[in-house]
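dude i think i finally got it to work??
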Amino acid sequence: MHKTSLPAALLTATFLALAGPVAAQSGLGWTRFEDPALGYRIEVPLDHYGQDGAADASGIRTFDALDGSGQLSIFGAPNTDDLSIAQLQEAVASSGQIDNVTYRASGNSWFVLSGYDTDENGRELVVYTKFLFNRDRSAFAAFEISYPEDERSRYNPIVTRIEKSLRAPAPV
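look at this
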């Protein structure tokens, strides 16, 4: 499927101490995940991805679509390197996570990157990631979703709902 992690150095420095999110049912096949350590939350459509995704050692929780068509990762971390929004955006953009970045947007507390990558079968994937900082920029929460380009119309409402549900961590 798709590569699921940022550069190892960034992950190691940023995510190792995190506990995984706790799931709370919110109806209609969507489940809200809340991270007890950082306080961020996000909704995931378990009717599309199945039961909770496994968290790796760095605290990234990854969900694979039940039909194999896409992948979703959610995570958060303290901003231990005191990176600005622009600095973290550039680190993610240059990480190779998205082979061809075609869209960038940012605001006072967030940024989005989107573009294309290919899976191990040579199929073109859309990759979309959003990072949301808390007020004092001491921590952030994020998600990354990838799916086949030819399934964009099916995934657009999923991406929109996930994006709207993402809430920033509490101040660290």
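The beta strands are 22-25, 30-34, 41-45, 54-55, 61-64, 71-78, 100-106, 110-118, 124-133, 139-148.
im so relieved honestly
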